[in-house]
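Morning run. Coffee first, then this:
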Amino acid sequence: MDISSAGLRVLRQIAESGSFTAAAAHLGYTQSAVSRQAAALERNANAALFERHADGVRLTPAGLVLLRHARTILDSVADAERELAGAGSRTEVVRLGTFPSAGWTVLPDVLDRLSAHPRITVTTSEGSTPALIRALRAGSTDLALLTSRPPHRPSDGESPRLRLETVEDTELAVAAASDGKFAGRTAVHVDELVDAAWIATPSSSAQPLLGVWPGLPGRARVAHHAADWLTKLRLVARGFGVTTVPSRSSAALPPGVILLRVEGAPPEIRRVLLARLPGRPTPAVEAVTRAVMAASTGG
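And here it is:
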């Protein structure tokens, strides 16, 4: 096969993004350029590599085989680039993906703990749990912090199974203005939230609406959509609505925001998982894993 590293990068990005359009945007290509690269890959491999579905693009079994080799090849190219730049012998890079709220509840502590390991460089990226799983499968992320809802089944059905470690279980709570309707309280009954204005993260049909209490009776009234956590919490502090947050985030809340336990409904437990592809991890990946586990326990 005559396949270029550029073609392998396109393959990996399509696997990670789940669509030709998103892959093109990430790589800075036109969609037609990505389509041409994909077609050239299939010609050179003499096999169908992509399956088009209504919700995006997935790799065929042949595509997954090529992706497995692409991960090795592209990682070797990256290592060579670092070594030629004089960095290969000094540091090992670990790419860590995180779900959004982990960026302000877990990640700073993890990076603090790793400051004692000057030979390890951690780069981070943020995404939803489905997007992070695709990044792991594509080989563009080494470790990922994911969230799961009960009954906490495996995060995806692909093989080989991801290696999952439970970091912690955390209870969902509601963030409200400290001088608003729920001022001075530590709990709220779920019925009191029926008419609340909610501040939620935009979602697709494949993902639940984040920021609204899952067991809310009736239809939620979403007043504001925001993906950025600081935006959501500043709106909460000014009294423009309420949103859901993990209870462990209480120490990181900005002034003017209180955390409320929800009564009258089953607790909403979210499990935080650390995921990677199976196989023997590198010493650097093991070090980052230990830092994540220690940060969650405060040890």
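The chain has nine helices and twelve strands. Good start to the day.
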